[in-house]
Specification:
Number of domains: 2
Strand order of the largest sheet: 7-8-9-10-11-1-2-3-4-5-6-12
CATH topology of the largest domain: outer membrane lipoprotein receptor (LolB), chain A
Order of helices and strands: HHHEEEEEEEEEEEEEEEEEEEEHE
Shape: globular
Radius of gyration: 21 Å
Distance between the termini: 34 Å
CATH class of the largest domain: Mainly Beta
CATH superfamily of the largest domain: Lipoprotein localisation LolA/LolB/LppX
Strand content: 35-45%
Oligomer: single chain
Length: 342
């Protein structure tokens, strides 16, 4: 997903953690015949690859592919168009994302440093960001325990952004996690379209390329800011500082099936002078971060949601416990309410 600053560029979020095309109406018989021809015109090697082979191919493509294109993202019922340019050189990601609507927000990334340019406010917000992909939510890998919490299958051949694609479906076994639909470019394995799917089949969030150019040389000039930022106000976003890994003093007595502790450490959160304990739970695909911090008389906001990300806070024994992740609301609520001090 894109940095939190896209939703609210002057407020830090704790956890970082889309389209209809029209076409001429053709004779129905001709459409069916053409569709069948397109579906089966694939290289022999592509036909033999397993779902896990495609996931491995996707992982490599996301980390190494240069591309330029237009993305439509649909979230909370709202669609926005983004112009995106991305280049990877010697393992360093350089990226430019320009929002085509609204205030014209532009994001310039060079490695882990991200500049969010707000032309209407004549401001530049400087953030730190270490995610591999800013466009897509957490993507599955072949390490996910398929068959335990999820099923994985190849659904069909398709076309996205004018390119031949193969569609994978990741189907959860219960209501505690979202499903995924992923359209991968047959030639490169790059994700051309992704959807997060709720238990009722509704699309929670969608990212789709309307047009894309893959693996062509990107000129440095294409990654330069569109706006002249001379005279803009520069704002350094406070960074969360990880102090040390710790043995978690808090445990959950009712984790959803498949979730387990991945890490636990103390972290200094912006706006707080006391460290919080950050516990990361994962089922291998879905992640939930739990923050435990002294209440200090503060009120609890309980539920909140931005796109696919849900959070839930609860006060317990003088602490505020907040669970947040790209999972259904009932998952973060169950985890937050089940946390207990050892």
């Amino acid at each position: 997903m894109l940095p939190a600053s896209i939703q609210n560029p002057v407020k830090t979020r704790r956890h970082r953690n889309s389209m209809l095309t029209s076409r001429p109406i053709l004779n129905a018989t001709a459409c069916v015949a053409l569709g069948g021809l397109v579906s089966f015109m694939m290289p022999a090697k592509a036909q033999d690859e397993t779902p896990n082979d495609w996931l491995n191919k996707m992982a490599r493509a996301v980390q190494t592919t240069n591309y330029e294109g237009t993305v439509i993202r649909i979230k909370d019922g709202t669609a926005e168009a983004l112009k995106v340019v991305r280049m990877v050189s010697d393992g360093v990601i350089r990226e430019k994302v320009l929002v085509q609507d609204g205030n014209g927000l532009e994001i310039i990334r060079n490695g882990n440093e991200v500049h969010c340019i707000l032309p209407d406010k004549k401001s530049v917000l400087v953030e730190e960001w270490d995610e591999q992909s800013g466009l897509f939510s957490a993507l599955p890998s072949s390490d996910v325990r398929f068959g335990s919490e999820y099923d994985l299958r190849i659904v069909r051949r398709d076309r996205v952004a004018g390119r031949k694609a193969i569609m994978l479906a990741v189907q959860p076994h219960d209501q505690y996690r979202f499903g995924h639909r992923i359209w991968l470019d047959i030639e490169t394995g790059f994700p051309l379209q992704t959807q997060l799917i709720a238990g009722d089949g509704a699309t929670v969030e969608q990212v789709k390329f309307a047009d894309i150019t893959l693996d062509r040389e990107i000129q440095i000039s294409a990654l330069q800011p569109t706006y002249d930022t001379a005279g803009f106000r520069w704002i350094d976003e406070p960074r969360r500082r990880m102090t040390q890994a710790v043995e978690a003093d808090w445990i959950s007595d009712s984790l959803p099936p498949g979730f387990r502790i991945v890490s636990s450490h103390q972290e200094e959160l912006p706006g707080s002078d006391k460290p919080a304990t950050h516990i990361l739970f994962s089922d291998g695909l879905a992640n939930v971060s739990v923050f435990v911090e002294p209440a200090d008389g503060r009120s609890v906001s309980e539920r909140s949601r931005v796109g696919a990300s849900n959070s839930f806070s609860v006060a317990t024994d003088g602490y505020i416990i907040t669970a947040v992740g790209e999972v259904p609301a009932e998952t973060v609520e169950q985890i937050a309410r089940s946390m207990q001090s050892q």
